[in-house]
């Protein structure tokens, strides 16, 4: 599903008009789709009190259509009109013909009538401004949104639903006006917008739903960014032929672990195995191998010699290079630490590769590369890099705030500059390629913000890569599976106390469910 900027959306809407899809038809489709999604959010809307804040433009028109349908389905709908609607506005006339109560903000100078409506409302639909609003909000709008925010503080059960975007959220950048509401749900129309996936907009949008309003998808084919969907991931999942053997599903060498981060090895190897890799070998310090062998019984081992406990022998890089020919994927970095011997190992392995398995680099491999001038010129060929925002900031030499303010933009920029595939982790994880493509996860789950979940993700990606997927497909599918597993665990446990190992047994179940969808 393509993600469109305001300008791209404008061009798509112009194309719609040329092929016989006029704006009034799209508005009717939009309002009906929004009303249907509201019923999914609220449950049965019959006799529920819903307040619709109606702006002066097309977003307000969409809100009027949604209000009409919700009224027809039994909801008690009230309209609060902000800004002047034309006297001949068809959708406002249809609402009035149904007896839907309409209050104009110009008739409510003290906002007392708004307060009364908010006190009895189960939900508020913010249909004031959509993609067309980029300037600061004017006084009246600020005052109304402030009353809604205060009503939410008094009644946390009041559900705030944004139509297309929370008013005051910039559709392209994610910047927000101070008055912008913290929506519980955002129902965006036709295509997602980039600002919904950038901070601080992410925090205002709540749970995101994208509704179809009848725009043909081919009109947006030129857009380079897409939302990751279940249908796309299902179409590229590795096949599992009946006559397979473990070699069929690939071999992964995981170089990971140190005395302070033993668990990272377990999580990364388990992630690769749980998505179906045929053979996983763990290369870890020899002193840790007996400990890990009690937990990781299905992997094979390449114990790495140490000159003393915790200090890699100088011969380790040569040993790894000698073994690489037997593997399809090298995953490196999880829990290796940044001791002088770990730095020497990572640089000796990665920066002296002439030909190698495909690479997945995470954690300390990234932190050590970040200390190496122009490292991307010394790391041959494409590779998958999986930084969290702090690691990305170190790699790119910019503040974390700059990374978070334009996650898609910076991921695409560095993927092109470094000629590497980037997985920028976090809420709405971004995958970007050297060819300029980008995909965005639909998942923002605070339960995944805990130690070790990134090790699971890197293992998942490596396991899919070993089964023959391209770097881009493996990265995108891995991000999707990891996000869906996180959602499954959150549904069962909640988002506090979820730990990385909770994800592992659910991975095969998510794959199974994905394959069974028809």
Descriptive report:
- There is one protein chain.
- This protein is an alpha/beta fold.
- It has two domains: 6-223, Rossmann fold (3-Layer(aba) Sandwich); 230-237 and 249-516, UDP-N-acetylmuramoyl-L-alanine:D-glutamate ligase (3-Layer(aba) Sandwich).
- It is 41% helix and 16% strand.
- It contains 20 helices and 19 strands.
- The chain has helices spanning 6-18, 23-42, 58-72, 90-97, 112-120, 139-154, 201-205, 230-236, 262-274, 289-293, 316-323, 340-350, 364-369, 375-378, 389-396, 400-405, 407-418, 453-466, 471-493, 507-516, and strands spanning 49-54, 76-81, 101-104, 123-127, 159-163, 185-189, 207-211, 225-227, 251-255, 279-285, 300-304, 306-308, 311-312, 329-332, 358-361, 384-385, 421-424, 430-432, 438-440.
- Helix 2 packs across helix 3, helix 5 runs parallel beside helix 6 (139-154) and helix 18 packs across helix 19 (471-493).
- The longest helix is centred in the last third of the chain and has 23 residues, at 471-493.
- The relative contact order is 0.09.
- The mean pLDDT is 95.
Note the topology.
Elements (H helix, E strand, L loop, with lengths): L5 H13 L4 H20 L6 E6 L3 H15 L3 E6 L8 H8 L3 E4 L7 H9 L2 E5 L11 H16 L4 E5 L21 E5 L11 H5 L1 E5 L13 E3 L2 H7 L14 E5 L6 H13 L4 E7 L3 H5 L6 E5 L1 E3 L2 E2 L3 H8 L5 E4 L7 H11 L7 E4 L2 H6 L5 H4 L5 E2 L3 H8 L3 H6 L1 H12 L2 E4 L5 E3 L5 E3 L12 H14 L4 H23 L13 H10 L2
Parallel strand pairs: 1-2, 1-4, 2-3, 4-5, 5-6, 6-7, 8-19, 9-10, 9-14, 10-11, 14-15, 15-16, 16-17
Antiparallel strand pairs: 12-13, 17-18, 18-19
Helix pairs in contact: 2-3, 3-4, 5-6, 9-18, 11-12, 18-19
């Amino acid at each position: 599903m393509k993600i469109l900027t305001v300008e791209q959306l404008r061009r798509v809407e112009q194309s719609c008009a040329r092929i016989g899809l006029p704006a009034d038809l799209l508005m009717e489709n939009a309002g009906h789709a929004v009303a249907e999604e509201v019923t999914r959010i609220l449950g049965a809307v019959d006799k529920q009190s819903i307040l619709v804040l109606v702006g002066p433009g097309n977003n307000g028109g969409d809100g009027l259509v949604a209000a009409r349908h919700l009224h027809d389905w039994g909801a008690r709908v009230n309209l609060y009109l902000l800004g002047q609607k034309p006297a001949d506005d068809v959708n406002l006339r249809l609402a009035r013909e149904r007896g839907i109560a309409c209050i104009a903000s110009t008739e409510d100078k003290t906002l007392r009538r708004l307060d009364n409506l908010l006190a009895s409302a189960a939900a508020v639909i913010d249909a004031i401004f959509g993609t067309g609003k980029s300037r600061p909000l004017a006084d009246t709008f600020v005052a109304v949104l402030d009353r809604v925010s205060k009503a939410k503080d008094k009644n946390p059960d009041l559900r705030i639903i944004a139509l297309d975007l929370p008013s005051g959220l910039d559709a392209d950048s994610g910047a927000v006006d101070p008055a912008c509401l913290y929506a519980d749900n955002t129902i965006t129309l036709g295509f997602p917008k980039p600002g919904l996936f950038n901070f601080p907009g992410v925090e205002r949008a709540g749970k995101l739903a994208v509704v179809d309003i009848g725009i043909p998808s081919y009109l947006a084919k030129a857009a380079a960014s897409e939302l990751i969907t279940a249908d796309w991931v299902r179409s590229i999942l590795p096949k599992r032929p009946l006559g397979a053997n473990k070699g069929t599903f690939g071999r992964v060498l995981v170089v990971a672990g140190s005395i302070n981060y033993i668990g990272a090895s377990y999580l990364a190897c388990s992630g690769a195995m749980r998505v179906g890799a045929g053979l996983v070998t763990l290369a870890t310090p020899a002193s840790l191998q007996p400990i890990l062998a009690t937990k990781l019984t299905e992997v094979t081992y390449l114990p790495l010699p140490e000159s003393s406990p915790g200090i890699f022998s100088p011969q380790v890089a040569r040993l790894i290079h000698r073994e690489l020919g037997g593997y399809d994927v090298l995953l490196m970095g999880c829990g290796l630490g940044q001791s002088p011997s770990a730095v020497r190992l990572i640089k000796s392995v990665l920066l002296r590769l002439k030909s190698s398995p495909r690479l997945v680099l995470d954690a300390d491999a990234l932190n050590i590369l970040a200390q190496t001038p122009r490292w991307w010129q010394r790391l041959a060929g494409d590779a998958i890099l999986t930084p969290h925002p702090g690691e990305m900031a170190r790699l790119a030499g910019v503040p974390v705030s700059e990374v978070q303010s334009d996650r898609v933009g910076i991921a695409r920029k560095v993927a092109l500059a470094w000629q590497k595939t980037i997985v920028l982790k976090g809420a709405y994880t971004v995958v970007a390629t050297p060819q300029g493509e980008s995909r965005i996860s639909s998942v923002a789950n605070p339960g995944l913000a805990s130690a070790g979940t990134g090790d699971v993700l890197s293992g998942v990606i490596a396991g899919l890569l070993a089964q023959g997927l391209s770097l881009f497909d493996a990265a995108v599918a891995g991000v999707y599976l990891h996000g869906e597993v996180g959602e499954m665990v959150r549904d069962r446990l909640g988002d506090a106390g979820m730990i990385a190992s909770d994800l592992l047994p659910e991975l095969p179940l998510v794959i199974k469910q994905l394959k069974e969808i028809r």
